[in-house]
Amino acid sequence: MRMLEMHIGVKDIQKALAFYRELLPHKRVIEDDENKQVFIVLEDGTAFGIWEAGYHGLLNGLPAEHLHFAFQITPDEYDFFKEKLQKLDVEVLEHTWRDGQRSLYFFDADGHQGEFMTKEWA
Questions:
Q1: How far is CA 37 from the centre of its chain?
Q2: Cα–Cα–Cα angle for 14, 4, 84, nearest 5°?
Q3: Looking at 36-40, 57-61, 105-109, which range is the least confident one?
Q4: What gap in Å lies between CA 36 and CA 49, rounded to an integer?
Q5: Residues 6+ apart with CB under 8 A from 23
Q6: CA separation, residue 17 to residues 33, 58, 95, 103, 120 (Å)
Q7: How far apart are the C-alpha atoms of 38 and 47, rounded to whole Å?
Q8: Which percentage of the chain shows pLDDT scores above 90?
Q9: Which pTM value belongs to this model?
Q10: 8-state DSSP, 66
Q11: Which residues pair with 71 in a beta bridge?
Q12: Tens of pLDDT, residues 16-57
């Protein structure tokens, strides 16, 4: 089993899409006709959904208002993502875990906390 999709709520879909499209390696972007939701399909097939705040999806589903999410990266990718965040003019917060693995934390314009982590949970 793997996580297939997750969704965040944002005030400005186009602004959030521009940010995450630049930040996240992806295969494609799927936009709906109403401009209420977009999906950034990551390289592994996971969909990172961006929904207009307050939008109700199927069966009255709602996106997360303030969410923490983490993407696993290799230690070799750490500096690459740190530089990407800095180029996007985002404050980068760094953390080193007890086992020596590292994380890059950031907040997007809507207050969602993202993380790039070299650690594995398995």
A1: 14
A2: 45
A3: 57-61
A4: 11
A5: 81, 84, 85, 88
A6: 15, 21, 27, 23, 27
A7: 9
A8: 81
A9: 0.91
A10: S
A11: 116
A12: 999 999 999 999 999 988 889 999 999 999 999 999 998 988
Q: Is the pLDDT of residue 122 over 80?
A: no
The pLDDT of 94-113, averaged and rounded, is 97
Which residue segments constitute the domains of the chain, with CATH numbers given? Answer: 5-117 (3.10.180.10)
Angstrom CA distances, 2 to 6, 9, 27, 41, stand at 12, 22, 18, 14
Q: What is the dihedral of CA 106, 32, 52, 28, to 10 degrees?
A: 0
> Which tokens go with 89?
């003019």
Residues of the chain above pLDDT 70, percent: 100
53, 88 Cβ separation under 8 angstroms: no
The distance of Cα 35 from the centroid of its chain, to the nearest Å, equals: 19
Kindly state the tokens that stand for 88.
């996007």
From 31, 33, 34, select the one nearest 18 (Cα to Cα).
31
Beta-bridge partner residues of 113: 68, 107
Residue 8 CB burial class (10 angstroms; 0-12, 13-18, ≥19) = buried
